[in-house]
């Protein structure tokens, strides 16, 4: 990979992510390093298959089964993770607790880290046509500092020659990397470290989030309430031939 450091969502716009992290608002990050500790393993899949008591559970399981049955190799159970579901669960669990400044939650171990978002690559201040904030401008866009952390080479694509090291399959570009740093660039961010184990040691489910996920998905009370005709009274379907 030309950039083995960044996560895709931040890689899409590192500077925007940098602005959010440095805006002074509390930030909680659930990175891939943490979601990678909760793969959709075979035990979870089997239990899920047996617990489909609502339309929502049936829909979600069928969707998951389609993904598994069409996975590109035979490593589905070690390469497919809970990702957004886990991140949402961590966020909801944190918000459900009042005055929860340490991010205590039911599903993930949390830790404060001093990090920043890398937006360009060293050496800084070298204008090579890749950085629209500086190249061709007498005054950098957004009044950015000349020679500062935003003034280096910006990755122009997955095959950017600047990022590729000849004879190696590991590139050097770090655009979008949430990097642990010290000094004035550092921002204190609450970061999820790993998924918590299931408190029930006798359960086939090895993560606490698995149990909660299936419990909530199978609650009957709110099941099947969504309806296009009631949620969207002016919705209509027209078949053109």
UniProtKB/TrEMBL annotation:
GO MF annotation terms: hydrolase activity, hydrolyzing N-glycosyl compounds
Sequence ranges assigned to domain Inosine/uridine-preferring nucleoside hydrolase in this UniProt record: 3-121
Any single Pfam family the record assigns to this protein: IU_nuc_hydro
Entry-linked InterPro entries: Inosine/uridine_hydrolase_dom, Ribo_hydro-like
Taxonomic superkingdom: Eukaryota
Family: Belongs to the IUNH family.
PANTHER family given in the database record: INOSINE-URIDINE PREFERRING NUCLEOSIDE HYDROLASE FAMILY PROTEIN, NUCLEOSIDE HYDROLASE 3-RELATED
UniProt-recorded name of the protein: Inosine/uridine-preferring nucleoside hydrolase domain-containing protein
Organism: Musa acuminata subsp. malaccensis (Wild banana)
């Amino acid at each position: 990979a030309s950039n083995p450091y960044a996560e895709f969502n931040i890689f899409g716009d590192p500077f925007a992510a940098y602005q959010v992290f440095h805006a002074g608002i509390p930030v909680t990050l659930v990175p891939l390093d943490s979601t990678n500790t909760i793969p959709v393993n075979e035990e979870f899949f089997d239990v899920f298959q047996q617990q489909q008591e609502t339309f929502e559970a049936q829909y979600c399981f069928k969707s998951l089964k389609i993904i598994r049955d069409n996975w590109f190799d035979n490593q589905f159970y070690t390469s497919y993770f809970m990702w957004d579901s886990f991140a949402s669960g961590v966020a909801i669990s944190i918000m459900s607790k009042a005055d929860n400044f340490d991010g205590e939650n039911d599903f993930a171990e949390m830790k404060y880290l001093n990090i920043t978002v890398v937006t360009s690559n060293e050496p800084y201040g070298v204008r090579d046509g890749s950085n629209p904030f500086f190249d061709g401008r007498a005054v950098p866009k957004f009044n950015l500092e000349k020679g500062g952390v935003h003034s280096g080479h910006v990755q122009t694509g997955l095959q950017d020659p600047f990022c590729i090291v000849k004879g190696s399959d590991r590139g050097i570009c770090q655009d979008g990397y949430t990097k642990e740093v010290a000094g004035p660039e550092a921002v204190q961010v609450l970061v999820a470290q790993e998924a918590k184990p299931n408190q029930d040691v006798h359960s086939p489910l090895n993560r606490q989030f698995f149990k909660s996920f299936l419990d909530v998905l199978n609650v009957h009370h709110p099941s099947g309430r969504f309806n296009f005709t009631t949620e969207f009274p002016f919705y209509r379907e027209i078949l053109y031939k």
